What does this fold into?
Amino acid sequence: MTCKIRKWKLSDAKDLASALSNIKIQDNLRDGLPYPYTEQDGADYISAMLSADENETFAFAITIDGKVIGSIGVFRQGNIHRQTAELGYYIAEKYWGKGITTEAVKQICKCVFDKSDIIRIYAEPFAYNVASCRVLEKAGFQYEGTLRNNAIKNGIVIDMKMYSILKTEL
It folds into this structure.
């Protein structure tokens, strides 16, 4: 199954809401997303991504056969980290374990490194999210260490892992 990443369209809101209205997905993301996630929430997110500075926010839909199954984005950091960006992603549960997310990560890293001055992309999955850690490893990211007691998710203090890939490594 091959995926493609592409710019968002407002018409993607329904598919986005369908993918993100899953507590198993939200348990692996940062807080602040509404649950259940509605089509209007999706439209608001897509509008924000479409109006964002394209040199700061690289946000794409993950698609299979034209259908949106997830979201992936790279977000430039500021100040002394201005050439560093954070990666975030998720796909609908139906598509887990098929190599799709790894392929999407490879695609977005190539796109960002080719079209910007970003030199480092990093990700901070929750330490318990073994599948996400494996996605990053398969996409060529290097494990840099564990960020101990780095977050509180669902009322529990948890570790996160730090992964990165450099422009020179792609």
